[in-house]
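ugh ok fine here u go
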Amino acid sequence: MSRTPKALVRRFIEEVINRGHTKLLPELVAPDHVRHAPDGDLYGPEGVRIDLAEWRVGFPDLELIVEDLLADGDRVASRFVLRGTHTGPWLGLAPRGRAVVVSGMGLDRITGDQLAESWLSLDGLTLLRQLGKL
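structure:
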């Protein structure tokens, strides 16, 4: 199925991140995908699934809102806002019941019709402040 790089990234965000449809991961994420995240690299669809599951436990109402989505060739840049309520354990933190709103940016490289490599930057300092850890 051929789609534009922007459409692929938007579908990944809407269907997988926001709606939790992780069964789409093998279709949207290449087997040799590398996701470079602030807390370390993740590999393949399974790495993405595990990371998203951790976020969903801590923030069951997790939503990523795209503010900007720009494409150039096989690269797609996104600027987003992540929202959620910390009602479950997350990265060793007990639930605090606090709502968070955090900005971030991503850059995805597309090969064929799949995400091949992703770089993610999230405002972790603001996130920790909103969780009362700083």
